[in-house]
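Weekly structure sync, notes
Attendees: PL (lead), two postdocs, one rotation student
Agenda item 3: pending single-chain targets
PL asked that the sequence for the first pending target be pasted directly into the notes so everyone works from the same version. It is reproduced below exactly as submitted, 98 residues in total.
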Amino acid sequence: MERIFAKSTLRKFWEEHPDAEQYLKTWYDTTVNADWRNPSDVKQTYSTASILKNNRIVFNIKGNSYRLIAKFNFEKQWIFIRFVGTHGEYDKIDANAI
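Predicted structure, written out during the meeting:
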């Protein structure tokens, strides 16, 4: 079972972008119940996810309307949400450093 830090980040985002709510809830439920041990395991579930350096993975949310970046600690089964935003907001950040 994965531990995700912090669901409140997702909740805050979907309060501002209600059309993302169900997609983020689905991502959360899928992720918290996953048994991912490495980036390849994540890709088996989310084939469109982009694997970055430092165990960061970018997920396309709502048909790529939004992006979510999570940093994984596969050994401890922890996931840290580093960013949730629109595609335009994503284009303005360094996904490898956030």
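Discussion points:
- The CA atoms of residues 30 and 45 lie 9 Å apart.
- The chain is about 35% helix and 30% strand.
Action: rotation student to compare against the earlier draft before next sync.
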